[in-house]
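Narrative summary of target 7.
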Amino acid sequence: MWDLPDYRGEGLFDEDLLLRHELAFGRIKDIRSEKALEGGEEEYFRLGAEFFLSPSYEDALPEKYEESFRNPSYAVKKLGDGYGQLLSFLSYESLNIIPFRAEKKLFDEVILLETFIELYCLYLSAEKGKKPELQSVKDVIKSFVYDYMDHSVSLRIREQIDPSLDFATRIIMEEDLSDLSYLEKFGEYVDDDVRKVSAFLASLPETEIDAMAETFTEGYRKGFIATGKDLSKKSIVNIRYELGFERVIRAAVRNFEKMGLKSTIMRRALYAANRNSVVRVGYSGAYVNRQMDFDHRDDKAIFVDKAFMERKLEVIERTYEDYRALAASFAGPAVMETFGDDPFSPVFKKEALRMTASQQKIMLELSGNMGKITNRFIPSEERSYTIISYPVPKIGPDFKKIFEETIRINTLEYDKYRDIQQKLILTLEKGTRVRVKGKGDNKTDITVSLHKMNDREKETVFENCVADVNIPVGEVFTSPSLPDTKGVLHVSEVYLNGLRYEDLMFEVEEGYVKEYSCSNFETEKENKDYIKENILHNHETLPVGEFAIGTNTLAYSVAKKYNIFSKLEILIAEKTGPHFAFGDTCYSREEDIKVYNPDGREIIARDNEYTEKRKTGNSFNYFECHTDVTIPYDELDSIVSIDDEGNEYPVIQEGRFVVPGAEELNEPLDTQDMG
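Modeled conformation, tokenized:
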């Protein structure tokens, strides 16, 4: 029991590091049995040592969370305010030792163990009956993050662009995927749902797996064609997915190889210096505990300051310089998302760390500058992406039927939707503004101002979006003109990035969010904080970056039939009704690239009045966010285009498409109503 993990034979580590690891591991064993501290401190370090000796995700699961030091409320209760939050952070961070050991990341494990030991020694050195100075505890934690950013931040960039970092790729391409034990080798949390996905895919014929992979990789290829970008100049693609889909990913890797692309498959961000709130980017297993992740979403409050920002930007710049050739070869991400997980409504805890207003501003500045650096080494006009989504078994007993329906939704006829959507665009463009109204209890009444066309034969304001970068097919969208865009957007219930919102409402004035509310929590402040943090991403306001009409009524019908709206991924949900996105436009950093619809007309609505400011100086920053809010058809009354004389051109009335030639879109809606 509690044997020293074997890091020898890897050919990666020097003897000094191995010795540091051996000494640290031995000290951890001692801490496990020592009784040098009392009360909550003794419990914290004893349990922490036990975890390092025999790590498991089990003790972080919801059923054990209320009395876990990973819970900041419990940590504060046992360790005191201030101390509890800091030690809870390290307890949360310690979960990373599981993937570190899976990947044989000796250095990462050593610095984690040494930080734990340093804190223990700090408590030992305090006067009997007293705690160490709070600032001293904070300094140890800050040093853990700050001193190793050369390693953590640089590695995060390399994992995306360097195919030689192939830990996950080797598992996917070399393991026997019919033996579900391969899942444990990733070092991620694997629950029954992940195993069921893998087993289900193992039961499908190779032809069906190949078809799923083909839809995925062809969407990626078509994205380059649709935007006039040269894929032949690129040699690296980054695949992001959730565990269980390895059989499809294996086929996708082979397809990309035929395109001349090597795949990188990076894990979700582990280090606090790289984590972005509750969003996971990269391959990942099941969520261990979503409330735990939510409680620690603002742990950056411990270390974020101007020095942190400057240091991180310095490391990012230097890493891209060192790996300039790989960055130039990077084509962009190919993302396979999932939907169907249990809906999550978080609980706000007063003990959880929160960034100050000044720290939020620093993070916004950091995000903007990171985007500028990345765009310098991987220009947006040379890269693309694709996203597709599939259900997981947690969606319910109809999983297999929903999976089959999703395959059908993801492979709908390209040409048919292209032609129908073109008819919608021609009607929308008869006006200079579009009014969207809800019905029943839905309070939506918002007017979108359209960009003016100078030559209707050559110009268009709506993009005819079919299945390439955004799969499935089914939307027309534009970047609104901001000054005359105004009104109220309301949705009774919506799930965005896995978070539930009730009675979500935005008041828009001159194209920007003026007021916002929801009814999730008891107080107005909690509701506003929830929206500001997770939809506005801590900006004081955001513009309406996109107005779109989703035309995938089949997806809407399937969601209604199986009652899964609350579990839909936004990728599909946005196609099931009109939607508005707050933040950057769909053409962020690519406004100067000419884009054309299938009819040959140039899409001129690539800028708005905010993005035009980028031409005036280097101080301009993108918002680095884009969040879609969709009004489902059953809450929608009408969408009408209106010209300057007040003439109206209906697109949807009483929740049904009325444009001649678009009647086929109503068939799934009518079938659903009858069924």
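Residues 15-147 form one domain.
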